[in-house]
Amino acid sequence: MRRRSFLATLAAAGASTLAAGCGSGGGSSPSGGASGATTGTVKIAYQKFGNFTQLDDLMKRVKQQFESANAGATLELIPIEAAQNDYITKLALMMRSPATAPDLMYEDTFMIRSDVSAGYLLPLDTYLEKWDDWKLFVEASKAAGKADDGKTYGVSLGTDTRGLWYNRTILEKVGVTGQWQPTSWAELLEMARTVKAKVPDVIPLNLYSGKPMGEASVMQGFEMLLYGAPGGTLYTDDGRWVVGSKQFRDALDFVKTLYGEGLGPTPQQALDTTVGQRVSGEWFPKGQLAMGVDGSWLPGTWLSKGAAPWPQWATVMGWAGMPTQNGQGEGKISMSGGWTLAIGAGSKVPDLAFSVLKLAINRENALANYIDNSQIAVRTDCSDDPAYLGANESVKFFTDLVSVTKFRPATEDYPTISTAIAAAMESVMTGQQSVADAAAAYDKAVVAQVGKDRTVEG
């Protein structure tokens, strides 16, 4: 599938909970209109964590470009060194006070709606309609930044897909040669058991699980399972949350089997907030992990500009689709998401903040970000660029997974429900609850959050 047609089909999801505030210098423009400010300081907060530091490189480059082009203006970088859950928490704390709130922030699409509902993000429509580049962004990436009021609050930096990564060298030791594609959960678990028996000094299969990894556990762990079960979903087309479903219990049972049989990391390893960093920077490169459910961005760590360069990755590593439960449908499943840049509702320098946003996502910087961070392009003038298409050996495969990809529910309730899913996973993986009890606790949490009338029995 061509990237342009791929991107045209994307539909992202969002929801959010943070708080916002402020900025420094210039005049206020809460409706997204022009404030006339041309000097002052723009504070930008973003995640800098573990092996994924290329975003920091991008922001440093943008700072230099912005300050060179805007005499009297300053871009203050606020890198937050934290895993996803901690990043969201720290950003929320910052935005609760005008003294610390950033003007511009790195925002996951799944957080947008609840932040907008709380009144913490600035609508960008007045700016976007005057920005020529906006027409180059694919429609689905535009939808990712919208809230229920139809206004746009975030501009996409890129998107992603998820699949199954595996170490060819390790699987060759158990008889696998050439391209491998498991056809069911049972086959995947059986491969993990075989690796455990024949190559006992490695971790057979990593599936993120538990509260410390937050949305990594929920989206690329649990939801890759749930949506791969026949008819599995969190949310119905008529706007109701599914409770009491067999598919939900089946997904939890996979987690129980993986950790209960010792086929994954130890619970202690899995509940470490740095486990994602260890997977990409240590376990895979050092041959300590056979298989892992992970994202299209993984090579970004291993490329020459990555935090943990690994020249041999493309020959050592293999990639496959995450199999559906019984091989039904197209036999594979993926989840897609992405990150945006958003402006705080209380920013006193919205014009300058939007100038930074435009600069960070112009063609030159966007293309560098797509390549360096192994992101799927959302600008059509980058999606066919030879440098992008040839960025690494896995790009086409993970792009083609869009044909089977799913998206998280785009509601303001999602962040709370996501937390309940992570809690259910953790209680099962640690043996604190049975699958039935963990699923029942989840159902109770959903009803408490959204009300009985907005749920349906699966």
Descriptive overview:
With 458 residues, the chain is an alpha/beta fold. Helices cover 40% and strands 15% of the residues. The chain has 21 helices and 14 strands. The strands form four sheets. The chain has a five-stranded mixed β-sheet with strand order 2-1-3-12-4. Helix 2 (54-69) links the parallel strand 1 (40-47) and strand 2. The longest helix has 16 residues, at 54-69. It is globular. Mean pLDDT is 89; it is low at 1-36.
Topology at a glance:
Layout: H1 3-8, E1 40-47, H2 54-69, E2 73-80, H3 84-95, E3 104-108, H4 112-117, H5 125-128, H6 139-144, E4 154-159, E5 162-167, H7 168-172, H8 185-198, E6 203-206, H9 215-226, E7 241-243, H10 246-260, H11 267-270, H12 275-283, E8 289-295, H13 299-302, H14 313-316, E9 317-320, E10 322-323, E11 332-335, E12 338-343, H15 350-360, H16 363-372, H17 380-383, H18 386-389, H19 395-400, E13 405-406, H20 414-429, H21 435-450, E14 455-457
Parallel strand pairs: 1-2, 1-3, 6-8, 7-14, 11-13
Antiparallel strand pairs: 3-12, 4-12, 5-8, 5-9, 10-11
Helix pairs in contact: 2-15, 2-16, 9-10, 9-20, 10-20, 10-21, 20-21
